Amino acid sequence: MARRRQIYEGKAKVLFEGPEPGTIVQYFKDDATAFNNKKKGVITGKGVLNNRISEFLMIKLAEIGIPTHFVRRLNMREQLVREVEIIPLEVVIRNIAAGSLSQRYGVPEGTALPRSIIEYYYKNDELNDPLVSEEHITAFGWANTHDLDEMMGLSLRINDFLTGLFLGVGIRLIDFKLEFGRLWEGEEMRIVLADEISPDNCRLWDLKTNEKMDKDRFRRDLGGVEEAYQEVARRLGILPEGGPRDLKGPETMQ
Ligand code: UDP
What we know:
254 residues; Phosphorylase Kinase, domain 1; D-amino Acid Aminotransferase, Chain A, domain 1; 7-stranded antiparallel beta sheet; 6 helices; globular; binds uridine-5'-diphosphate
């Protein structure tokens, strides 16, 4: 196969030019980072699992009418997506206090929030992804009020749906991060869900034991990281064909 042009390499994924104009191939790596790149490591099999988990969730979300960039999974580590103009915001939806919210406001981890809270962070590693308000977002032109309304509406629908889906497999959706992009179709612009949804960007706790089943196991050196990602995939019924032994996946196709 001809080598494809690499467009961008991020912390957990590499993006390549897709086979047709307006498409991109997302390659999922096993690399893991935390604390804005200060902590680095490898979670064996993570890329394969996140590719499958994100595919599964994006398809389910499309079924309830959420527009997404996802087209189809190509192989163990790659998926084809529509090319979008990424809005430089991380949209965090929280149901239960944890992580930076607990630290910032002194709310103990595990406290149920009176209602879901949406936060926006400006995507900028040099600035450490600062928390921003709608005022900052519109004043600096990262998105307008229409875009924000759209992102908030979609985020709440995604939260409702994913909360139920995970509850059904014995997992509490504590919080998660979404990214959105602008998809241009001629003169028309639509805001669509982009990036990925996986245990890299969700907090998932076992319903019975509150055990963490997400990247916090890596961030906080809790051990059992690979097993936690596998368990999420197993509960969703999507462990790769060969089971855990098959998680290294094929050689990198670049
Ligand atoms: N998150 C993410 N990428 C980031 C920051 C946060 O995917 O750069 C996710 C994280 O996995 C969690 C949620 O967003 O599910 C809220 O994270 P938080 O603000 O508590 O930050 P953290 O404690 O992870 O630094």
